[in-house]
UniProtKB/TrEMBL annotation:
InterPro entries: AB_hydrolase_1 (IPR000073), AB_hydrolase_fold (IPR029058), MES/HNL (IPR045889). Residues 4-225 form the AB hydrolase-1 domain. One of its GO terms (molecular function) is methyl jasmonate esterase activity. Gene3D superfamilies: alpha/beta hydrolase. This is Alpha/beta fold hydrolase. PANTHER family: AB HYDROLASE-1 DOMAIN-CONTAINING PROTEIN (PTHR10992:SF1086), METHYLESTERASE FAMILY MEMBER (PTHR10992). Pfam families: Abhydrolase_6. Keywords: Hydrolase.
């Protein structure tokens, strides 16, 4: 059994894994969640934060090999981390996340899919260095099947997303085992796009949950069980 290290997506922080961490603890599964630079409680100035900063934070947080989990945008930094420090990672798990294609950054991948539901809700800062999501559409995009109170918990914790941190492509595919959890009610990254990104993966490495883009709030026990099972795989 390896430890799970949980990585959040755009504008989120370690806080989004709150309920999953509680479930994993009850199962006896070692797990941690960290803030990427400029997110959550981390006070790093957002101007100039890059993917390299994300990767350094992840790899610097690992002492013994972990099962590394990335949600949404987090698929990119966990992939870069596996390419940078392969000895520190036993498995990558993508939770309704981007699976990088070599030579493409997040924007390239998003534009390559015909349905782009996130575009209308992205609000750029005046200097173009960060973006946020339209506050009036947070529930319908991210938390529509989550318990009452989820939006009240999430809204004040969301932070601007550094644009530069999403502009680095990968050069290769990592060699470690990889697993994917498709979220069938996702309104942010279309389920069809998720399935397309893993179209050539073995069936045993792809799972499906009937939830939104926020399975850590919508179904934390189910998600925790799946992650714990993956952490126990050889």
């Amino acid at each position: 059994m390896s430890e799970l290290l949980l990585i959040h997506g755009s504008c989120h922080g370690a806080w989004c894994w709150r309920d999953v961490l509680a479930e994993l603890d009850a199962m006896g599964q070692p797990a941690r969640a960290i803030d990427l630079p400029g997110h959550g409680d981390d006070a790093t100035p957002r101007a100039g934060i890059t993917m390299d900063d994300y990767v350094a934070r992840i790899t610097g947080s690992i002492d013994a090999p972990v099962t590394l989990v990335g949600h949404s945008m987090g698929g990119f930094p966990i992939t870069h981390a596996a390419l940078t420090a392969p000895d520190k990672i036993t498995r990558l798990v993508y939770v309704c996340a981007y699976v990088p294609e070599p030579g493409k950054d997040i924007g390239d991948m998003r534009r390559a899919w015909p349905d782009q539901p996130l575009v209308p809700v992205i609000e750029m800062s005046d200097d173009g260095a960060t973006f946020t999501f339209d506050a009036a559409r947070l529930r319908e995009m991210f938390y529509h099947d989550c318990p009452e109170g989820t939006l009240d918990y999430a809204r004040p914790r969301l932070t601007p997303q550094p644009v530069a941190a999403q502009s680095r492509a990968t050069e290769a595919q990592p060699d470690c085992p990889r697993s994917y959890i498709i979220c069938d009610r996702d309104r942010a990254i279309p389920p069809g796009f998720q399935a397309h990104m893993v179209r050539d993966w073995p069936a045993e490495d792809v799972q499906t949950m009937d939830v939104s883009h926020s399975p850590f709030f919508a179904a934390p026990r189910d998600l925790a069980r799946r992650l714990a099972d993956l952490a126990r795989r050889p």
